[in-house]
Amino acid sequence: MNALRIALLTHSVNPRGGVVHTLELATALTALGHDVTVFAPAVPGEALFRLPPCRVVYAPITLSQAGTAAMVEARIHAFKQTLMEHDAWSFDVLHAQDSISGNALAELRAQGLVRGFIRTVHHLDHFDDPRLAAWQRRAYEDAEQVLCVSDIWTREMRSTFGIAALTVPNGVDVARFTPDEDVRDSQFRQRMGIDGGPIVLSVGGIEARKNTLALLEAFASVRRALPGAQLVIAGGASLLDHDVYARSLLKRAAELGLSIGPHENVVVTGPFDDAAMPGLFRSADVLSMVSLREGFGLVVLEALASGTPVVASAIAPFTEYLDDTTCCWANPADVESIAAALLLVLTGGGCRIDFDRAVPALLARFSWPASARRHVDVYRQLLATRALVIH
Fold first, then answer.
1. pLDDT digits 0-9 by tens, 174-191
2. Which structural domain range is residue 44 located in?
3. pTM of the model
4. Rounded to whole angstroms, what are the CA distances from 29 to 25, 36, 95, 299, 379?
């Protein structure tokens, strides 16, 4: 079949789950022989944290006002301008991975400048600001086709919003994420101040959705049993404002007698070099993924591929692809449950993940090439439907 010209749009240059999805999908689609361009908004001097093997176009951001709504509006405008400068109508497929790029495409579609677009919903947020809520809604309502990375969100889109979404799962790069120790791992640990034992890892920064406060409380219990334990909270580059929640975590840490900083009880890395991610997973004794809401939880597969056990929230989407042989479950609303699950893994007290058979079988079910092929099927179906409408 003919190669497709595909534009993948992502909201940020930072290592968030949706951006990682975009870059991995771009890489896999390129490997299949398609002509892929990744569009991302950026301020002067910014660049994607990892470059895919395809064309990348940055949409220059001009921000004149403070606040989340102004930031979103500036990025929508940047996308619109850049897409038109790069002949948006000439792409076979325009695929938005978020509400920001989805709104830019919705506006271009309303103006008759593009035929339509596809939108992947990783998860939806709650916004008190009516403009943010309206932008989020428009980005999926005006799409020709909505995709989700998990069945829970596909059902949510259908039952709550009346959107006929399709599930197209994520993948995992098992060549990049492996249990094999790298000589640079110890240097990375020293540089980040990760020198305790055992290590509890959380990826995604300090956010209410990530349930970081409950994890902190649980970790305090873990340290009473394992005084040398460290909690590493990695990443956290987000466009949304989580400062109030982060301040409450710092306050609670002080109340619990937990020190924060390199070589301390709690290490908060902030954004860091993407090349160090595999080593970070290998450095951990357990990944804690006790989120209250996720689209898929890509880091779970990355941790397991790195040989690191996982404690996961006993809720969808995790319950869709994990079981008792691939993770240890916790109730994310119960601090004692989180602490107990972490201790089971760290002490070998009853939660034994099957890294010999179950984990390899799980990882084999999720690959980026398979995800890319499923995306291409959706793309071609959409193009065929358009052709029928024209004729």
1. 999 999 988 788 888 888
2. 5-171+367-390
3. 0.91
4. 6, 7, 13, 21, 12
